[in-house]
Amino acid sequence: MEVIEGPMVTAPCGHTYDVQCLIDLVDAATVDETLFPPACCQQPFDLNQVWGYLDAKLRKQVERKTTEFGTKNRVYCHESTCSTFIGAATPSPTHMLCTTCWAYTCGHCKGPSHDRNVQCMSTEDESVIALAEESGWKRCPNCGQLVELSMGCNHMTCRCRYQFCYVCTAQWKTCRCDQWDEDMLLGAARRRVNARQEEERRRVNEWQEEDYTSDEEEEDPGNPAQYLEHAAPFYQHDIDIVGEAERLRGNYVCPHYWQFMGFGGHWQCFDCGTWNNFRFVSLDPRLYTVEHIA
């Protein structure tokens, strides 16, 4: 048993925490709604009990998340690169200002703000409902927004941060549904394999296009086999896809294959669809490594 040094905090269930572990738990709960409010053995902490151990920044974050997670029908900034919580939904069209990106969102339909005399494009519209049923979309059990499965993993995280199973819409980790849609799993694996092989072919082509006949002394480019040996032959393609699919099935965390979308400096993962602002800090043949600066 690990010995706790320094001040200890006793959880409602009787377990003890050192201060730093408690702070880490509270911090994680402000990011993952399934952990909020912070609890041990499914018994929530009294926030008044832990308040004195939190710094001003974390206190403010807890206050914001208490309001956000306590709002049933939430409105988030319609800008996909922002998605900041801006308040509760309204019964009629209203202009709700996001103080993060300064965009206006309609408090009724949760889309871009519009004139009051313009009818909201609501997810309750018959045409939208029909399209949702035809496309197999699901509603977030928490906020009611329509959600589309864009890749193979049935673990969905809505814009309201609620996590649920796309198959049965139960809260994530409370059902026994399969985690993966097989067709989409193979699609995700195919995109990864294609991206890697495209990078390998690009490197081979760059070497072949080099002119090494110059009279000027040049640095030895090395054996081209070092590039060619990594270039997967075409007959290997399907085998690689199946192998990648099995790897994803066993241990998936989206590594984010970023592509520049060309407006506002934004990048989007072409696998899971995540948007954000980044700058490159390194480039790997198989995976872009980026640093978040937003």
Automatic annotation (TrEMBL):
Keywords annotated in UniProt: Metal-binding, Repeat, Transferase, Ubl conjugation pathway, Zinc, Zinc-finger
Chain segments carrying region Disordered: 198-223
Domain RING-type: from-to ranges: 1-181
PROSITE patterns reported in the protein's UniProt record: TRIAD (PS51873)
Biased composition (Acidic residues): 207-221
Record CDD domains: Rcat_RBR_unk
Molecular-function GO term, any one: zinc ion binding
Keyword Zinc: yes
Record GO biological process: protein ubiquitination
Name of the protein in its database record: RING-type domain-containing protein
Source species: Trametes pubescens (White-rot fungus)
